[in-house]
Design a protein that fits this description.
There is one protein chain. The chain is α+β, with helices and mostly antiparallel strands and 289 residues long. Helices cover 39% and strands 19% of the residues. A hairpin with a 2-residue loop joins strand 2 and strand 3. Helix 1 runs antiparallel to helix 4, helix 1 packs parallel to helix 5 and helix 5 runs parallel beside helix 8. It is globular.
C-alpha cells in the first residue's frame, strides 16, 4: 500500500520546534531537580492514590507557563480565545512532545491543552456565563477539567449510560456513576453526560445532555482512584453523583443533544492517542539505537 504523505506547513513545524524549546526549559529541569518526587511512585502518589500536592503544583505550573508562552491553547478554537491552529498542528506537536519526553519527563503532557482536561473544541457550545466564570481559568492553565462519559457497563457503547438528569426547580439533579475518568482526581470541573430524555435515549435518537459541573459541587464525589497495572496511584477515577444540582447555564450545547459533544471529544482523542503512540514509539526506538 502506498503511503499518503504531504508536507507539514512551516508554521506547524515552527510551533513544534518552539514546544521542544519550552520542554527543555520548563519541564526537563523540573524532573531533574525533583527527580525522586516525580519518578518514585511512592512519593508521587498519596496513600489514597492521588498525586501528592507538590506534584499537582508542578502540573499546574507547567500549564500556566505553557499558557503564558502561547503553547497551551494553540489548538483551542479562536472563538474561545485560542490560536485555532487545528488538528494537524495538534497531532504534530503531541507527537513531538512524546518523542522528546518519552515516559520519563511526563510533565510534558501538560504543555498543551489536552482535549478532555482543558479548553478544546468540546467547550465551543458552553453558555456565556460558563465562558465568563470558568473558561478564563482554564485558558490560563490555573484550572482543569475531566470528561465524565464512561460508566460501569457503558464503556465501549456510551449510548448505554444510566446517569440521569431529572428536572428539579430551575435545573436538573444528576444521579449516577462514572468510571475511567482521566484527570478526575484533581480536576476542578467535569463534563457530565446524563440521560435527559429516556425515551429518545432508548431509541438512540438523542436524549443525552452534557453539563459542566464543578467537582466541588455538593453530591459530587471521587469514589476511588483506579490504580492501573498494579501502580500505587493513578490519574483515573471513579465518580459518584448523588443529587448534584445543575442549572441551565451549565448545559453544554443543546438539551438532549450532548452525545454529539461526546463523539467530538472521543474523535479528538483518537488524534491525540495516535500522536502519543507514534511519539512514544519513536522515543523507544531512538533510546535503543
Amino acid at each position: 500500500m502506498t503511503a499518503i504523505t504531504f508536507p507539514i506547513p512551516d508554521d506547524v513545524i515552527a510551533t513544534a520546534d518552539g514546544i521542544e524549546g519550552f520542554l527543555r526549559k520548563e519541564v526537563f529541569p523540573r524532573h531533574q531537580s525533583d527527580h525522586a518526587l516525580l519518578s518514585d511512585p511512592r512519593r508521587t502518589y498519596s496513600d489514597d492514590g492521588r498525586y501528592v500536592p507538590a506534584v499537582v503544583d508542578h502540573i499546574r505550573s507547567v500549564r500556566i507557563a505553557a499558557a503564558k508562552a502561547g503553547y497551551y491553547s494553540m489548538s483551542v478554537p479562536v472563538e474561545l480565545g485560542g490560536a485555532g491552529m487545528g488538528m494537524l498542528a495538534y497531532f504534530v506537536v503531541w507527537e513531538r512532545i512524546y518523542r522528546l519526553c518519552g515516559s520519563h519527563n511526563w510533565l510534558g503532557a501538560y504543555a498543551v491543552s489536552h482535549w478532555a482536561f482543558g479548553p478544546s473544541p468540546v467547550l465551543l457550545k458552553v453558555t456565556d456565563r460558563a465562558r465568563s466564570e470558568i473558561l478564563g481559568g482554564m485558558m490560563e492553565g490555573r484550572t482543569s477539567m475531566c470528561f465524565g462519559m464512561s460508566e460501569p457497563g457503558a464503556g465501549s457503547d456510551a449510548t448505554m449510560i444510566h446517569t440521569k438528569a431529572r428536572q428539579a426547580d430551575t435545573g436538573w439533579r444528576l444521579n449516577g456513576r462514572k468510571i475511567w475518568t482521566t484527570n478526575a482526581p484533581q480536576a476542578d470541573y467535569c463534563i457530565v453526560f446524563a440521560v435527559t430524555d429516556p425515551d429518545r435515549a432508548s431509541r438512540r435518537a438523542g436524549g443525552i445532555s452534557a453539563f459542566l459541573v464543578p467537582t466541588a459541587s455538593p453530591g459530587f464525589r471521587l469514589e476511588s482512584v483506579i490504580r492501573m497495572h498494579g501502580s500505587v496511584g493513578g490519574n483515573e477515577g471513579s465518580i459518584v453523583l448523588e443529587d448534584v444540582q445543575v442549572e441551565p447555564w451549565q448545559l453544554v450545547g443543546e438539551l438532549h443533544e450532548g452525545f454529539r459533544i461526546g463523539l467530538l471529544g472521543v474523535s479528538i482523542g483518537r488524534i491525540y492517542n495516535s500522536a502519543r503512540a507514534v511519539g512514544l514509539g519513536r522515543w523507544a526506538i531512538e533510546a535503543v539505537t
